[in-house]
Structure formats: structure tokens, C-alpha cells
Amino acid sequence: MKQTTKRLMVFIDNSNVFKYLNQLHKIDAKWPKSYDPKFLAESITGNRELKEIYFYCSPPPPYLQIEQPYKYWNQISYYEAVKQLPNLVLKYGRLTGGKRNISEKNLDTQVTADMIRLAAENAYDVAVLVSNDGDYQSAVETVKIFKKGVENVYFRGSVSMSLKMVCDVSRRARRKFFKRLAYDYFDGNTIKKIKESTSGKTSRK
């Protein structure tokens, strides 16, 4: 029987990923914070067929626009660049509460819903979940009801054992999976090239 190429979809919980990249970047600036999710997905895919990438994030909090406008517009600019990447769907969660008690809503719910819906639609053979969040255990178990494979990419020192137990493959995120995404910084008035330097600082040109 002829072996067919496995169809892959990659689901990136960026809020979770960014938290760990931010920590790693403080130790080793070669870990990029503004990473290229397409490059990450392709690095994971190998010789399989990458069908689509789902990227989940939350918008910057409104108070940032007043207190740290550069940081606010930099994040907006990064997400706009991510949106332009081929075969990628970007979905926003939402933020609730004020500056001192802000919380993220409807992000992991969207990840779970999409993984299960697309499994039921037979849109992929293998789902790759890039997250350390053990709350996705039930999502993985449901996806496997549809006879789909599930792989997990996690960061060193923070693997969720509950998630690892239900996934077919768990692999540690490596620095070679990540590269910086070049993009334009736009604040509504000016456009500038943005580049994250290896010193850990962000430069505008």
C-alpha cells in the first residue's frame, strides 16, 4: 500500500509561547521575542505537508497606548505582519479588567474549538500544539477520538506532564525553531523598519 504524506496543522498559543520566549531572551538574546510563526511551523513539519497555521494572541492592553505608546504600536505592528504570512490564521482573544487585574479571555477556548472542529472535518492528520498549558489535555483527548495524532512542543523546564501523557509526541522547543520576523513599525503616522537586536533591545530605523 502506498504511504501518503501526513497532513499537519500547527496551533500556536502565542500568549503562552511569548511568556517563555521573554524569559529565555533575558538569559540569551539569541532567542527572539518577535518570532516568525511560519518558520516555527515549517521547522516542526519536516517532510510532512503543512496545511495551515493557527496563531492565537491577545491585543495589547489599552492603557499601554497612553503609558508606553511605542510598546503598544510595536505589538500591533508585529501582529499585522504575522497576519500577512501565507497559510496562517490569526485569532485574537480579549482582555478584561483594569491595569492591576487584567486577564485574558477566550484564547484557549478558541484553540480547543479549532483543534476539535478541524479534526471532525478531517482537515488534518496530525495537530501540533505549541504550548505548555496543561489545560489543553481535554482538547487533545477529544481530538484523538477522531483518530488524529497530536504532538506537543514545549519549553524546557516547564513541560505539562498531563499534556505530555496524552500527546503522541512531545518535543522541546529549540532555538533553531525560532527566527526573528522582520516587519514595519507603524504608529498611525510613520512607518519605520523594526529589528530586534541580539543585545536584547529593539531598534527603529
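(the above was protein one; protein two follows)
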Amino acid sequence: MSLFSDIYSEHERATLNLLQYAERASWDSSQVCHPGTRADILEDIMQFLTAPADNISTLRIALLTGVVGCGKTVIAHTVAKKCAENKCPMLGSSFFFSSEFDERRRPDRLFSTISRDICDLDSTFRMAICEAIDRERALASAPMRRQFDGLILKPAQEASPHRTHPLTIVIDALDEGCNEDLLRLLETSVALVPNKFRFFITTRTEATIIQRLRNLDHISLKEINIRANINCQDVKVFVNHALNVIAHNRRIANWLDDRLITRFNDHAEGLFLWASTVCDHVGVCPSPKEELDDILNNRELLDSRATEKMNKLYTNILSKCPWHNRHFARRYQSCLGAVVALKRPLSVSSIGKLLDENADVVLHQLSSLLIGALTPDQPVQIAHSSLRDYLTRCDRPGSYGDARFSISEVENSQHLALRCILTLNRELPKHRDAVAILVDNKREAGHIPRLEDGVITEHVWYACEYWANHIQDIKVASNELREALACFQEYCLLVWVAIGASRGTYFSIGKFYKWSKVLPFPILF
């Protein structure tokens, strides 16, 4: 029951009851951040939410994004709790989307729920809504844009002059409940809301959402970098606390030390969800000490009770990809397979050039599982090694996966071998003049000119470095590969060696030579 329900008139109560309300969509005090963690992020968010209206100018939304499992929802619960316990900023409403609950997997009840919550706090806002519904009863069940105008925008404009403190609206997991209508409202109409009403929103790094919201004047975007030192330190603090609780509850003496915590933290790779899942699992095992040791020595021993949560999450995300789009479906295996099989990370643009594919089509759609997928020149990495394990095993029984999600690291490494050779055959002849001096007998002894940075592009340099590594995974050379290798030998071999020398790198042909000797039909230079 509302704390302010006693001030409602019977007419107001009857009118507001026409608005649909999403039950159990509000914040939960048991889901907040562990004390001492996420201090920097929380400080940034609270500074925005508490700033004087003149200081934030056009800003209306603080948008927090990050890969799956990085802790966005816990931060949202913490922000909601802080606002609920303070008058500045005051918590107007919180709505936590969730694909597990019918009322919370769609935005149908978002604005009606928010407006009813704010009515408990602001009499001017409440009067405006009641008058609007009196004028037009259909507003209570109107389409989203009309509800936003009538239940949020106009009441906020009337209430704003009378507010002394900012009011916060928290929306978590936008990616789980967003549709085109809501996204368009966030793009445009929210900018018209008075700046005493502020939104804190979290979402995974979904390509559609982030690309459309990232460069707008009324939105401040912050991305959680799970590999940042401060994030890894926060995970370490959480892990240390969680394991100490287990040790205390299970009466385990002389278990924890800095080395164990560091090993655990290294395995967590900055991902809070993985760390908490393992701690939950270890905490209920008959022998927590031995179980954790097994996990840290061999993660495959993490049994289904712990991996099930991660696997179901990955399955849920991948199942929502646009498999009906023939371009996505055709490129999924090669593009995500390249991310899995590459010897070192490359940017989206370089992956596309190496594969001769439009990698954006796939990798942007998978941005909630990858680091760097939305930035063309940032190396793309799998967010956590548990995803790599899932992708390479999800076609097995009991994995909660789907064969269409499965990635073969070996097969994609074989494909990369061919793509590297084809890339070198196409690109290296362009640099023959740049390294010609290296085979000039009149060159000064011991002097090797260095090519300027950027002359050899990222994907070409990768092909130079790793074609011989990838080729080790090929057991039977196709005719296409044989022809490409013959072309490489005739036109590109010396240029390849010279380019390596110009970058201070020695390229050895030894791996290739040993590989070719064991083929059914040897290929020898």
C-alpha cells in the first residue's frame, strides 16, 4: 500500500485504478551491490541524479551499458535504493524488465506503472493525470506514445515548477523489454521532459539500442569495462567476502589466502555473474574447499548446477538473434567463429576485411556477449571464457543450447588459414616497392629501414603473423589452398619475409615446412 494513499480522494483512487500496474517490477534491497564495490560508477550516476537543474542542461538520461553478466542490474537496484532512502534525489519509480515475467517482458505497463508511483509523491503530478483521464478515459489503455505524453510528459511539465528536488526514474534491462515505440520515445520525446525528472537506464550493449541512443544530447552513455583494473578489484572484493562467508558458515579453517583469491579473480575475468554463480555453487557443495580447487584447476568440472545458469542465459540471448535474416544466418558461423579462433583479437573492421565479409551484420547483433563489437577499431573479445566453452559445446546433450549456435574452433581456424593466404596474395604485392631495398645488394650492411606505422594494415599484419599457425589445423589441403600457397610462394614469400624484418619480426617457415611434410600429398616450397 502507498505511504500516501490516505491523501487520495475517492475520485482520485478510482481514476488511478484504471491504470495498469506491473506487480513486482520495483527494486529489491537484497539485490544491491556489495559494500565497497562499484563506488566509481555509483558516484558518477548519483552526481548526475543530484545535480542542480542548471548544471545538467539538456541531459535527461544516464544510460549504463555493458556485456551480459557485468552487474548492471545490481547497480540499478543500488541506485534505486539510494534514491528511495533520500529526498535528493527522490525515487519516483523503478521498473525492472525481465523476460521471465509476462508483465515485465514488454513495455505495455511501463508508463502507467511509473506514473502511478509518482502520484504517491507529487500531488500536482497526480492532479494532472486525473484531469487527463477525466478528459479522455481511453488514455488509461492508449498506445505507448499517447500514454507517455498524457501520463509522463505533460504531468511532469506541470509539476516541475513546484519541485524543490530532482526525481529519479530507474529502468533496468531495457534490452529485455524494449520495442520500436519505446526506443523512439527515448530518442525523441524524453528530451522534452523537464530536467527535474531524470532517468537512469541500464541495457546490455545491444546494437540497435546503443547505436540509436549513444550520440544524443539528452543521453549520457557510460559503458562498464569489465577488464578495467577497478572493475576486477571490485570482483575481488566481492569474491573475498563471499568465500569468507562460506568458510564461516561451513566452519572451514585455514582455507582462504591471497593466492586463492587472486586465482579465482583471474578466472572470473571481471564478470560478476560468473563469480557469483561459482560462489553460489561452491557454497552448497559437500566439500566447498575441494570443489573450488577443482574448478580453478579445471573449469570443466563446474557441474550443471552452476553452468546451467550461464548456459541458459547465453541460449536466451542467441535465440533472440535475427536468424530469419539470411545475411545474419549465413555469416554467423564465419564471423563469430573468427572471434573464437583468432590467435589475437582484431577489430570488427579488420575481421570483415580478413574474411571478406560484412562482419558488422553479425558482431553488432552479438554485442551483449562481446567486448568492443560496437566500436569499429577496438579489438573484439569474448566477454568471458564461459561463453567460449558454451559455443564450442552447445550442440551436446544437456547444454541448453542449439546446434545452430555451435562454433567449431578448429574448422574456423582452418578457414582463417585460407583467408590469411588469400589476403597476403592480394595485399603483399602492393608493398613490394616499399621493401625492395631489403633485397638490394647496395643496401648498407646491418641497416633495415622500418616501415611507418599504418602502412601495413591490421588485418594484413595479422595474416603475416599467424597464417602458419592456423594452417597447422588443416589435415587435408584443398585445391583452393594448394593454389593459394603456390601463388604465395611465387609472388609473396620474399615480400612477407621483408615486411617482417622491417617491423623487427622474424618470420619462420619452419612450422609450415613441418606441417606440409605430414600431409597425404605434401606441399613443399
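Reviewer note on protein two: Strands lie at 61-66, 90-96, 167-172, 197-204, 219-223, 370-371, 381-382.
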